[in-house]
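Forwarding these from the shared drive since the link keeps breaking.
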Amino acid sequence: MRIKNLPCLVFFFFALISFEINAKDINLEHLDKTISNREHYLKLKEEKLDSLRHLLKDNNNKERQLQIYEMLFREFLAFSFDSAMTYVKRSEALVEPYDSYDTKKKIEIHKALSLATSGHFSHAVNILKSIDSKLLSKDLKEEFFSACEWTYGVWAAYSDKNTIAPELTKESVIYLDSLIEVTPASSPQFYYRLAEKALRSHNYPEAEKYYLRTLNKTPITERLYAQAAYALAMTYNEMGNKDKYKKWLINAAISDQTIPLKENLALQELALFLNKEEGDVERANTYLKLALEDAIFYNNRLRMLEIAEKTPNISNLYQNTIEHQNRRLKVYILTIGILLLLLGSVCIYIFRQRQAVARSKDALAEMNRHSQLLNIRLLETNKSREQYVSLFMDLCAAYIEKLNRFPMVLKLKVKNLSDLNSVSDRYVRPSEIETREMFHNFDTAFLRLYPNYIEQFNSLLQPDKPILPKKGELLSTDLRIYALVRMGISESHKIATLLFLSPQTIFNHRTQVRNRAIDRNNFEKDVMQICEVNETNKK
């Protein structure tokens, strides 16, 4: 292997290491970016809560206070258990015995929902059992059945699957059926609850269909989106589709972080999946720690215990991974040190070669300077040649004009000498053969000077209107006229004299050619620029 390829090998080695360490799934990168903005989303949440709290200032209207407490409760329900309970208790303090059944029971439903979300299931069920659903309004029935379905469903998830969980699940399904009956059809909540029913019945394709409908109708910044995305992930897990399971866990986790929700499952579930299925111990450890932080923030003791049991195993695996990476890093450092020594040797060799090349460049630069001087002289010579040819043509034009005037003068002076008239007409004016010979000589000389004249001249014309010499000609009349223009003879009367034509004829030819030009206004200026001397030399 040649030594000059060594820098390429070093680059490839570093790229390989970088790829191995830093290769990431694009969806996980999106989640990581969202997690990095956790403080920003938390700040937005706090600003929203502050704006609601501000509405309570100087507000003594009981109904309005209850409305604001309810809004704050809903904001805190999946964010902070203690704060949610605070506003439930403040609502309880405002309620009077004479208030409506709906008003009093709505607060109890909120209290039960908070207790169930935080893991206090039996207390929540006792509160819900004390409520007579028949006495509730239609809107509150939906909220009551939702609280009952949620409480029994979450309690079943934390209970023994073989003993207690089946009974609790049965109760949850009963309330789910009642809930579907009072939910407005075609609403996102309606499709979500149909999906929940299909999932409980193990009808996974049906569950998938309704969860996707829910997600299509719900923005990612709403809790319903996070719930539907997580439930859809669980559906794909049951169907054995690991890729979609991972995808929707990520989407659910992103939604949890964006809202933000501190009572969440997606990040914890994703951490366990990454650890078990993909061996991404570092991410799993990070996500599980964040899930534990959220559980502590919300004050969900069951979730804290659950995560705490799983964290040590992943943390130990992560520590082992770090130690393994450190050993590999030492090997990499040693290898890099050897490569750097080789690279240093190569640099010394290259430096010496560059010194030799520099000396060669100096000699070559001197030769280039000499060549440039010769080229300058050649350009000056060619310019002089053009000037001489132009001068020669001017002289020819002058003499021809004098010769053309000679017969006229002669006729005026000797009107009675008919013989002299015939002699002057015959011998003083050039014959047709002489004229053709003169044009042939001019055309030959001009094309030797500018061999690409016809091609470059036609490049100034419209593509479908070229001017080409006829068979047996070197230049046509139009080409010859503009050859003289290129030589610097632009006056029509001089051109007419040289070509033995009238000035009007020359004018007509020039007008016709300009009409064919791409740029009619600057055509003759462009003609003066074609067939530059330096281009001719290059040819």
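-- next protein --
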Amino acid sequence: MPQYKEGLNRHQQLLFPPSLDEYVDADNPVRAIDSYVDSVDLGAMGLLTCSNVSDGQPAYHPALLLKIYLYGYLNSIRSSRKLAREIKRNVEMMWLCEGLTPGYKTIANFRKDHSEILKKLFQEFVVLCRSIDLIDGAFVAIDGAFLRANASKNQLISEQTTQKDMASVEQRITEYLSALEYSDAYETKEATPIVRITHLEKLKKRKTRLSTDLQTLKEQDATQYCKSDPDAKLMRKPAHHLMAYNTQIAVDGKYKFIVATDVATKGTDLDQLYTTATMAKEATGNETMKAGADTGYYNPKEIKRCLDAKIEVYVPLPNKQQSQEERGKFPRDAFTFNEEKDCYICPENQPLKRMASTQQKNGITNLIYIGNNPICKACPSRSQCLPDATGAKRLYRWEHEAIITEHRKKMQTSKAKNIMKQRAALAEHPFGTIKQNLGWSHFLMRGKIKVAGENALIMLTYNFRRLLNLIGTTLFQKLTKALKTGNLESIKQEIAEYLAVLYSFWALLRYKSDFEPRKFEIYSGTRINRLINA
């Protein structure tokens, strides 16, 4: 008969039972969570608000609930009910909670009620990484993503759709009333059309609901309104539409830490460049910071605001002239600007002179340049320049167009092209990690304020995982001890030396064909130590 290994007798009592600490390895990330939260001054953030009254059961410490959430988000467990179950069956959670078992409602309320605290915690972690020279702010990559809200499109009220439905219902009511009149006129005849009054009542109730929806939109001064989450908006992607928030991040170029984040309710990035860039500059403390973003952020007004704040930005210009060229029309670039004479020169070498009046559009002032009416009508290239009904060519020039001219020249340089490649590698990495490795699928909170808190928590989790991957659990615990004592200089030097060895080892892995460079990214610091010491 074959021999197999036998386990312990579950009912046998041990003379010296193992402690719970023995089940948790020395390099287990849960130890890093515990030491980090213990090093944070939650009282200074206004989180320790429980009064020392003797009535009733004592409350759970906010540090405990923060540890639970950090562990949960690091391990793709975000539901408060699932977290409550893990506390009772997961050895790591038992160790982390020290045997305490808060209920799911207590866990959920912490995340719901402390949005501002979660944002402060994210900012404090950025300050920590900056204090040990892991963030320099020399270059940050800005990007946004539509992250799904906890809302249904079925609960969305759209002004355009509601008005269309209202017209359809009114038309059907008219048809039913006409059919009823016809029935009354021919009620004595054998052939009487069947018209049910219940159908008419349903249509009237439907009309009442639509009227209420239109009134709601009027009160909110909005074109769309979601009943389940009023702050969520319908945002459009090439493949589909979804109820979402526009999450903005700024990623530092040194070690890919997220230094700034926020959520917006607009489905466009056109007005997010300055806000995100200034948040990143404040977080990094670098007065000469450069920022890069994709074409969706191109907005002349936002670029000027960044330059006024002494932030150099790199944003590609969208190609708005392609449609003109495809139709055989002159693009805007075919008209050259003469700075000395303050006029445009058309392809037929005729001037477009500046008018005394200006145009106000989208908060900016445009100068107007117009051609000579008789010359434009007799121009041999008129069909390539103007519609038949237009008398003379007219161009609009922003009053600060010189800024955009310089920006266009800058974006054509090889330096700018290399920066755009670097931006793509930096900005896309966090969103991919959050969705694939951290198991993010959608926001659980509702309302912009609460969603912003949950967003800060998930970005804090990403930075936490990033730091663990860089320096390992053991060095991380040393860092938290130094943070408590206020002596960061010694640990800063040790981290710098460790990272120097780390990247030397990475270069060796890339050199050897037996290793894939991408695999190095997922090694923890402890694993790298083992490989180095082997």
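The longest strand covers residues 241-252. The mean pLDDT is 86.

- D.
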